[in-house]
Amino acid sequence: MNANLTEDSSEELGAEYLLRLTVEEEALDDMNHVNNLVFLQWCLKAAGAHSTSVGWSWNHYRELGFGFIVRSHKIKYKIPALLGDEVVVKTWVAGMERFSSKRRYHVIRQRDGRRLAEAETNWVFVNLDSGELAEIPEQVCTAFGIRR
Prior knowledge:
By secondary structure, this protein is an alpha+beta fold. The protein has one domain: Thiol Ester Dehydrase, Chain A, CATH 3.10.129.10. The protein is built from 3 helices and 5 strands. The protein has a 5-stranded antiparallel beta sheet, covered by helices on one side. The N and C termini lie far apart (32 Å).
């Protein structure tokens, strides 16, 4: 695996998760590049898969009655992804506060390790019935390798 898939800044706190994808035709826009919204979908898919991998599937959150919802996304596109590209979405939880969590992503082309995009999502933890902010339980922080 290319070194770019494992290098990161000192802001990385939690364990990282890698989601591997292949660009298919339906992901392309009129310029034959991966559509911007597809990058966002990939990031959200990686976040969900990462959460499930540490024991926090959507069903587990639902049973608890609390879960994360998106407050904001930020994506910086660097170079386009093209049909047939094998892509890795690397994600990690960069920090958790009392009510919120910051997750980062690097979208990397596998064949040469070039970073296609960088993204960040700010999530808030809420009561699923009321939508009100809720404190992130310590067990959730621990599952992601975060100590507050």
